[in-house]
Amino acid sequence: MTKDKVEGRCSCGAPSEDDVRKAVRERYTRVALRDSSCCGSDSENMCRCGSIYSSADLVSIPSEAQVASAGCGNPMAIAGLKPGMTVVDLGSGGGIDVFLAAKRVGSDGKVYGIDATPEMIFRARKTAEENGFDNVEFRLGEIEHIPLEPNIVDVVISNCVINLSPDKDKVFGEAFRILRPGGRLAVSDIVLLRELPEELLGDMSAWSACVSGALLEEEYLASMSRAGFVEVQVVGKDVFSEEQLGGYISRDEKKSDLSSLVASAKVVAIKPS
Ligand SMILES: C[S@@+](CC[C@H](N)C(=O)[O-])C[C@H]1O[C@@H](n2cnc3c(N)ncnc32)[C@H](O)[C@@H]1O
Fold it and tell me: Candidates 34, 89, 115: which one to mutate for ligand 1, based on the most atoms within 8 Å of Cβ?
């Protein structure tokens, strides 16, 4: 069996990189343009909205960023941010984690948000400008080709994004490149707990909803190690029930059991000094 470019999966029925990027961009353009919370009927991915952040955090950031929130965890809880740090958020969306990080690193620090969907970048820049965040910068770009210099970042965070990439090895390689020696990677992301049911393998809607692109947990950790990271560890895991997951995947007919298929995992790793 030949391996496809996308994640080394079997090429039979596997989507192309172009298909993945197109589906992801279309979905998150819609999210960027919405004006009500993702917790409503337009919920389009695994996001947990306000429930993953403390109310103290939520009141400290612009509501425009909360409305566009589409994460599945809270990387802030594991990022260990301190005043003065330089932080990068991979797939920053409407900017919720960038704004939370900006509060923590303060005026001596800097937070970059990177996102490939122009409407997300426009929205996040507008929110930053209207709310006086001058220690943040949003750059349009792919996380497989991060538009930043090497060795300049203290902490890389990401929230429910790397699963969407058709080339996770490249993403972790890029995170490693921009981190300074001793820097930290702290991500919340969707991982598979068992093999994906065949019916979901080439399903672009399920991919852009953060399901079909997810790697098995052990593959995810191995990809980080291949990039050069050490002390790779899962520090928290929240398993989705069939009911929770079913709401994100449209299927004509229920075919396979979705219980305990995916989890939102918090993972940390270090670039060696
Ligand atoms: C599920 S949303 C999460 C957004 C944000 N992290 C949050 O917690 O609200 C995924 C985001 O990642 C972006 N994205 C997906 N794949 C990307 C890639 N390969 N490069 C850059 N951004 C990407 C999408 O445009 C979208 O804004």
Answer: 115
> What separation in Å is there between the alpha carbon of 231 and the centre of ligand 1?
25
Amino acid making up residue 123: R
* Separation of alpha carbons 230 and 8, rounded Å: 23
| Shortest-distance atom of ligand 1 to CA 166 | 19
| Domain residue extents for the chain | 17-270
Classify 17-270 by CATH class: alpha beta
Q: Could you tell me the distance, in angstroms and rounded to a whole number, from the CA of residue 1 to the centre of ligand 1?
A: 31
- Do the beta carbons of residue 198 and residue 170 sit within 8 Å? no
Provide the residue-wise pLDDT of the chain in tens; the chain has 273 residues: 333 445 544 445 578 999 999 999 999 999 999 876 554 444 555 555 446 888 898 899 999 998 888 999 999 999 999 999 999 999 999 999 999 999 999 999 999 999 999 999 999 999 999 999 999 999 999 999 999 999 999 999 999 999 999 999 999 999 999 999 999 999 999 999 999 998 888 889 899 999 999 999 999 999 999 999 999 999 999 999 888 887 677 665 557 788 889 999 999 999 999
261: helix, coil or strand? coil
Atom of ligand 1 nearest to the CA of 46: 1
DSSP conformational letter for 164: G
